[in-house]
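Predict the structure of Alpha/beta hydrolase-fold protein.
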Amino acid sequence: MKKLKGISFIIIGAASYGILATFVKVAGQEGFSTASVTLSQYIAGFLVLALLDLKKKPVATGSGSDKYKLLLGGTCLGLTSTFYYLAVQYLPVSVCIILLMQTIWMGILVDCMREKKRPEPGQLLAIVVVLGGTFLATGFTGGGSWSFVGVCWGLLAAMSYTGSMYAANHIATDRPLFYRSKLLVLGGMLAILVFWNVRIAEGFRPEVLWRYGLILSLFGTILPPIFFNKGFPLVGMSLGSVLAAIEIPVSIGTAHIVLREQVSSLQIVGCGLVIMGMIIPNIRLKKVWLAAVLLFAVVPVKAAAIDTLKVYSAAMHKEITTLVVRPAKQQVPSVYVLHGYSGHPFRTLQLDIPSLPAMADLYNMAFILPDGQYDKWYLNSSLVPDVQYETFLGKELPEYIDQHYAFVKNRFGRAIMGWSMGGYGALHVGMMYAGTFGAIGSMCGAVSIVPEVYNFGMSKLIGTDTAVWKRYDVLSNARQLAFSQQELIMTCGISDPFLVYNRALDAKLNELKIHHTYIEQEGGHNFQYWSAAAEYEVLFFHRYFEGYRK
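Done. Here is the predicted structure for Alpha/beta hydrolase-fold protein.
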């Protein structure tokens, strides 16, 4: 019974750590800075731990040197949170947690250097397995295009986490739990203040303390040490280390449920190897080899590749960053995916539609993600010479893709879609180049040039002449779709500010008797809506492509 209780304690502690990154990412999406989120966690955590320490019976708290050592060790704790939370802003949670787990082999090397001995065979195997699992889990084998800055933050987090683990296991271990935790967290808070300095005050909103500080401190600085301190003595270090690996699937699973992050089967294999690397030093090698064989036997290895291209545009005299998400099969249809205002292709895969690689595998379909350069609206500007996106998307990019890939090379195997600014771009470019794209999809698109659109960068592209606006206005040019023989799908959330204009376009198309699909659902103008809507639209394109294959 005691062992079962210990198992439960360790699982709860590890799972608590696992959910942190998702909360941090949500806080960032709500406009809270990484600095304020991190500091609020440590302020709340320190106050709670200080109160818990006060309630304990007074005991000798050791020498002054112990206090300073704990404060110094706590700086690693604060830097771990800072670096990890910064990585979360650039990378999917599933990649961040794997980068953080590099502390497994880093810790082995630190112990070996401290004890001046060579790694044991089991430790060497653990290092190899963890590195191999990292290679798979981060998606590098498929040409993954993760942010280099994010990867650097993730590896720095792993290094500081290694220091934190050393401090927790070697500094003043005979002191009371809450006393040690309080000083470690205080040291972490001081490190955060030094790292961020005056930037903490920039845009600081007090509500971050109760909205995210309390919950992050509960799951990040209070519950884990309490449950680990109670659980490890009951189950032992070996079993406890194995159980602590639950942090990885909890972290990835929470991100999948809340953030809709997708994980390929190849990444699942990689995560399994990293978990195995945590287990190897604590179990017999025969069991490790058996587990490895079973893991590769039951998990299919399949993942879309992601290519990063620099495509030169003769019309704009510059290169445009473009991502290509492609399945293993070569001759497949393709969908051009246009991001929204202020977005970029990397964010599309990390946040807006992270399910694209999985859908590429599922439907045998390629996705082309050009960079719309923040606010260029995918049009040809007469005022800005290097903004000629109609030409690039309708002619230059398809020609480049046709030359370098074996995708279907006609309008019946090519579609274009986007959301917000990209929804406008998909409709505008799709209508202009009906011979290039056989199907168009718009999610909460800016279908009419109204102040909400004009004031977001379009004014510098098309000027102030309202007569000129009509050339670019989708609603005004809807009649073009009557003769294009294109399939069209539009979706919009009922809480979206563009809903009234999407309804107007739907009514105009009905009036003109132009066949189309229009869907309204719960949701607003945010990534949660278009991430879900994209799955409907991709299925729509899949059925369109399949119809012409037959």
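The mean pLDDT is 82.
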